[in-house]
């Protein structure tokens, strides 16, 4: 989202997820309700951290794509460092709140359904928000041409800030939701960031359609190969697929196939 | 006049480097110095493609690792270090050439370039990591997966497999290679090829319109950078006596980029400064546990991107130049000072 | 050509033999104990307790008068989970600090990164960690449990308990591959069948497709040879899908780094393991170790198998030095090679002269409430795997890590 709308590549995105995960774990261990922790507290706190970083560092770098890449890489290292100093490298984790159940012979992880539901909900509401609300219109306008938006009385600086907050909060939410499924270590975010990054860049500028199409494509490629061979092949296939796609469609999927969509 | 002052600077620089080479072992352990020098060569390779070709490569570690692995694999199979050493330069250079050709003839720029180099590094990292099972053999060398390849022939005097170059001798060899690589690149960027590359780095469209084949120049420059990184990798393999997939990691790539940022890439000397300073910092940080390394390097990176995007080298070299001019002006008190702009060209070291 | 201090000393000592006694020739009045451990970075979960327990062991030895009437000085470096730093600090220990012994190294890669350096400098090197076996080098001593020692007790017990169809999940590196091979071998010997072996890179944290695959295979039990922080997710996802109630599990790795403490007891209960130690061992030395450790560091939650092995490695070295009356590599080695046997918290521990590995007691245990409850004890198990390929008695100059073909 941040890349698509603001032309910023945020290397620290994985770390926002990691922070979301840690927030969730700390809250749960402090006795908070797990759903409250991951659906409300984690996004809020991570959003605030994102906001702070945007004000301190990133706003100075709008329009300098390479510099933002580097600066956010630095931020990602800082966040990993801080979390390591607080929690250590030892794996932290909490258990999943939903039990599995059986469908015929197959035992299904109930929590996965919950994740799917949340993801669908997010994509739908994001689409709705951007396409049909006044706020969405303003945001889209500001991203296309900040000067026009400014002359119409909307402060693009403010809009960027909000968008960054939203992006960070979303990854905080993702981290919170994934926390019960995995063992959390401070460097956890880096494992996801390359994938997310590729998904977004390949997806191209139309945020939602691009994201969904490239995420679906990569997700299925990954899982199919992982199932047939093993997870390594899954990942390698995903990466190769990304390289090939970028070579064929250098502007991303949406710019070439779904032109003019959101 | 300009050539003259350039050469004078160069000679003074080389002389200083040799003095450093002889004096430094009295202050810092030579095995640490050897590593710093290897890192410097690696940094130099990225400095070349980034600073002079305008190609930001997120995967310089891929060529570094490829060099180290090629060296290890061939050294095990051959048992003498000369040919593996050369192959460790040729293999990554070829790889960089092919990759470069795919990217530049596909007209990828900027972000997409970053993504592809990043992805290629990741693929290599994953692949090497997953070669633990015994069927991954190249000749008699087992790739070893996560554990890497230990026990290969380290650097020896050409033709004499039992005369190992190690310890202090190895340090001198590395230092001489660094000086030679620096000189090589120094003349490369001053050749007509180098000038065109710089022109492309500054404004690609302009160079294209003038009639240069931008894609060819970029590809060749990228291959040279890859070969140099491979050279650093071969030296590293010989220093560490083991190669592990960590060489291909994103962390390693990040480190190279940070060295370049801190040193600055507008001059060849910048990356070397960066590598030495940060390499030492990392080493000393390893002896304390209070502050996490990542934190320190992250802060350094952010600060430099925000406040000193040119890096340290321009600052250092302007001080250095002032010193030189001061000397010159005291020597030739009566003569007029040389016009400023002559010493301030883009290429002056 | 550099003259090594040790060579020089022994040469000089030989020349002046009878005039001056060896120890007075010693350069320093302390014994220098070198340590290389990852106390930061991704492996610090293993390294930190090892460092803590080593410092405690040295303090205890010093408090009782030291070794050979000298105090021991602990020279430790944090290798930050970085192989380049292992090479670098190893040389610092060998050339600048000139230590008398080195204990440390966690991953096999780290051991291989430093082994030759210590061999060249003739500094005895102790590697005290569970590993894949096969190292053959007269300068190194290894007391960690190796795959054959674990698997030959674990697999027959699991097959007897649950059935003959086995599904193996292993970490995709040397330890995983070699352990998987031993599982295959021992399964075959007792007529069981390994239906599938799957390898996972160390950073894989999503096991969804694997759990689906296991359900199609329907094995009688699964064996986990998974390693590291990311792989912990497997136990969690396995329990979350409810499979832990349907298919039982054995493991050669769970608990070696006290992983059970970050999982819930529900997720780990019933998992079968075989190690050379459990906190629950009922003997005086173990009780004393646990009491000392918790007196010094608060609790014993992080005192895992690797730390325990490290502690015992230090005790073994100290015992050998006392008998040899010297810290010199050759003399210490000679004492170790007599088949030195000492009593440790994990029971009797004997040096195997043929391989420089250890003959250990192995305890078949089951997790219950995050504790390893010992079910059965197998006394003095030899390192069969390394013995197949390595004989330092007949070939003392051997210097390599064998890949054992089964």
Topology of this protein?
The complex is a heterotrimer of chains A (262), B (349) and C (406).
Chain A lengths: L1 H5 L6 H17 L4 H23 L8 H23 L13 E3 L2 E3 L1 H23 L1 H11 L1 H6 L4 H23 L9 H16 L3 H22 L2 H18 L4 H4 L6
Helix pairs in contact in A: 2-3, 2-4, 2-8, 2-9, 3-8, 5-6, 6-8, 9-10, 9-11, 10-11
Chain B lengths: L1 H22 L6 H23 L7 H19 L3 H24 L4 H20 L7 E2 L2 E2 L6 E2 L16 H24 L1 H11 L1 H7 L3 H27 L1 E2 L6 H14 L5 H17 L7 H15 L4 H20 L8 H4 L6
Antiparallel strand pairs in B: 1-2, 3-4
Helix pairs in contact in B: 2-6, 2-9, 2-10, 2-11, 3-4, 3-9, 4-9, 6-7, 7-8, 7-9, 10-11
Chain C lengths: L4 H11 L14 E8 L6 H20 L7 E8 L4 H14 L4 E4 L3 H14 L3 E3 L7 E3 L2 E3 L4 H16 L2 E7 L2 H16 L3 E8 L7 H10 L3 E5 L6 H9 L8 E3 L13 H4 L3 E4 L8 H14 L7 H20 L4 H8 L4 E4 L2 E6 L4 E12 L2 E11 L2 H6 L9 E3 L5
Helix pairs in contact in C: 2-11, 3-4, 5-6, 11-12
Strand line-up across the major sheet of chain B:
1-2
What sequence of helices (H) and strands (E) makes up the elements of chain B?
Answer: HHHHHEEEHHHHEHHHHH
Hey, roughly how much beta strand do the residues of chain A contain? Answer: under 5%
Instruction: Report the span from N to C terminus of chain A.
Output: 12 Å
Please count the beta strands of chain B (DSSP E, at least 2 residues each): 4
Helix content range of the residues of chain A, please?
over 70%
Quaternary structure classification = heterotrimer
Order of helices and strands of chain A: HHHHEEHHHHHHHH
Note the overall shape of chain B: globular
Descriptive overview:
The complex is a heterotrimer of chains A (262), B (349) and C (406). Helices cover 73% and strands 2% of the residues of chain A. Chain A has 262 residues and is mainly alpha-helical. In chain A, α5 (110-132) crosses α6. Chain A is globular, with a radius of gyration of 19 Å. Mean pLDDT of chain A is 70; it is low at 253-262. In chain B, the strands form 2 sheets. In chain B, strands 1-2 form a two-stranded antiparallel ribbon. Chain B is mainly alpha-helical and 349 residues long. Chain B starts with a helix and ends in a 6-residue tail after the last helix. In chain B, α2 (30-52) runs antiparallel to α9. Chain C is of the alpha/beta class and 406 residues long. In chain C, α3 runs parallel beside α4, α5 crosses α6 (174-189) and α11 packs across α12 (329-336). Chain C folds into 2 domains: 28-145 and 283-361 and 385-401, Response regulator (Rossmann fold), CATH 3.40.50.2300; 147-275, Rossmann fold (3-Layer(aba) Sandwich). Chains in contact: A-B, A-C, B-C. Chains A and C meet through β2, α5, α10 and α11 of A and α2, β8, α7 and α8 of C.
